[in-house]
Amino acid sequence: MKSSLLSCGVLLSSALLLSLPVHSQSLYERLGGEAGMLAITNAFIEEISFDAMVYPYFRTSDIGRFQAKFSEQLCVAVNGPCEYTGDSMLLVHRGMGIDEAAFNRTVELLQAAMTREGVHHTDQNRILKQFAPMRADIIHQ
Ligand code: HEM
Q: For 74, which of 21, 40, 81, 123 is 20 to 30 Å away at the CA?
């Protein structure tokens, strides 16, 4: 009797938890917080490393630094409790000769990474919307 009451309580509280609207969680929390930022960033790095168009840009880069800074930037983009401590997008990408095709391909790789990490399409679009204004500082610099 005692154990069935207990399991009833457990069921009830799980049902209550499940019925909480998704919106009561922030986007940052929904993506898994700091670990989620890193998981998306790592999937993105993996996508880049297999891509013949984008990988050459990163051949001599410090990937550990990219991982840390991109992860921070992603966190800021989803209103997480972070501060971006990297360099400006203009400074970082200047002189790389990035054109539209390479930019668009990089966005596709980020989308593939987010899909792999189970990020809902609506949330993907929210994130890409935050990055969109950076395009002008990255292309043809
Ligand atoms: C919206 C799109 C993009 C965002 C948000 C972004 C963001 C970043 C960030 C946060 C860093 C690290 C900054 C730092 O070290 O202080 C970085 C570095 C870098 N990005 Fe981007 N990036 C974008 C597009 C691109 C594209 C299209 C390319 C090339 C096709 C590219 C190539 C690189 C490379 C090679 C580095 C490493 C630089 C180094 O070795 O010092 N990025 N990017």
A: 21
